[in-house]
Every structure is written in C-alpha cells, then in structure tokens.
Amino acid sequence: MRARRSFFHRLLRWTAGLVLGWIALTLLMVATLRFVPPLSSAVMLGRQLDARLDGQKDFRLRYHWTPISKVSANLPIALVAAEDQKFPSHHGFDVDAIQDALADADDGARLRGASTISQQVAKNLFLWNGRSFVRKGLEAYFTVLIELLWPKQRIIEVYLNIAEFGDGTYGAAAASERFFRVAPAQLNSHQAALLAAVLPSPRKLHVDRPSPYVQRRADWIERQVRQLGGSAYLGL
C-alpha cells in the first residue's frame, strides 16, 4: 500500500513538472516571437509535409518576412475589415461572433468559424489544422498568451506575414510579388482587398484569377475599409 502511494506521488510530481515545463516553454516561445521573426509556422511545415507525402516534387513554398513598416497600410486594414473588425478593441476573442455562431448552429446551420485574427495567429503559428476540442483548447491558450505578451501591431504584423494567400504562398511579400509583381509597400487598396478576399480558402480561391465571388468580396472589403475610416482605424 505504501509503495503504491509512493508511486502515485512520484507520478503526480512528474506530471506537474512536465506541465510546468511545458507552460514555461510556451511562454518563452511566445515572448521571443514578440521580437524575433518566425522562421516558419506550423501550417507551413504541415503544407510542406503534405506535399512531400503526396509526391508533389514541383511544390514550392514562398515565404520571407517583411516588417510592417515595409508593407502598404492598405493591407492591414483590408485584413481587419475582412476577418476581424473588432480587432483593435477585443482581447483575443469576439464573444458576440461566438454567440452568433452558436445560435446559428442551434437553428440547424453548420457551425461556422468565429476566429479572431489573434486566434488565427495562434493556430497558424503553433498548431495543426482540425476542429478537435484539444486543438481548440490549445488555440485559446496560445491566444491568451499572444494577447498578453504582444501589442496589437505585432499581432497584425505576424498575421500578414504568415497568412496563406495562395497554395504555398505565405505572407504579404511573397503574395504581392507573385500575384502583382510589386513590393508589398506598393500594394494599392484593390490589390490588398483581393488578398484579403481569398483568406477563407486560399487554395480554392485565386488572387490572380479572381472569380465573381472573389471580386464581389473584394469590393465589399473596400467598402468596409471606407466605413471603418481607413488605416487610421487601427491606430498603428
């Protein structure tokens, strides 16, 4: 009996040590990435693995970090207008959007996403694709850390650098050069809106061959940007 109790005590200590060590490691990771550009992301690594497993020998991943100071102000506000209009004021979670999504699901509609930009950064940077409760729990955890440790400007800077704008094309620099043959600082308002318009499904929707849906969505995003007051809305 005493031996069994001793074993469980050791197991509890080991478990607590592992949990505390993991928390310390994740805190260090998130704190470091406030200042250091990420070399890659979990989503990029996953896409590279998928390409290798599928035998896509011609697959090419395009990504290189660009500071927000070298990105046109048209892009951050287009992303916010398209994805998360409460971004400047929320603390990582849009409670109203979550409640609306749950209400729609109760009415029989498919449960839709209500992720903020902060949540998308957490998912894309650290986690895998999927809808499991474990992944959503980890996403919430990393979102809290990001909101606590990063200013809003850093969150949107990382987002516009790691978001996928086309198959294998990540970030403002790679996307602007691939699709428009311009530097990210030269993106005009319509080009920025087109990039934001494909974010729901960047491997099915195309910036360089926009469907009528993408064109309509880009036009809507431009109207939303004007209603928000343009780039001044972000206060960056």
UniProtKB/TrEMBL annotation:
GO BP term, example: cell wall organization
GO cellular component, one term: peptidoglycan-based cell wall
Main function: Peptidoglycan polymerase that catalyzes glycan chain elongation from lipid-linked precursors.
Species of the source: Dokdonella immobilis
Pfam families: Transgly (PF00912)
Reactions mediated catalytically: [GlcNAc-(1->4)-Mur2Ac(oyl-L-Ala-gamma-D-Glu-L-Lys-D-Ala-D-Ala)](n)-di-trans,octa-cis-undecaprenyl diphosphate + beta-D-GlcNAc-(1->4)-Mur2Ac(oyl-L-Ala-gamma-D-Glu-L-Lys-D-Ala-D-Ala)-di-trans,octa-cis-undecaprenyl diphosphate = [GlcNAc-(1->4)-Mur2Ac(oyl-L-Ala-gamma-D-Glu-L-Lys-D-Ala-D-Ala)](n+1)-di-trans,octa-cis-undecaprenyl diphosphate + di-trans,octa-cis-undecaprenyl diphosphate + H(+)
Pathway: Cell wall biogenesis; peptidoglycan biosynthesis
The protein's Enzyme Commission number: 2.4.99.28
Superkingdom: Bacteria
Name of this chain's protein: Biosynthetic peptidoglycan transglycosylase
GO molecular function, one term: pentosyltransferase activity
Main location: membrane
Gene from which this protein is expressed: mtgA
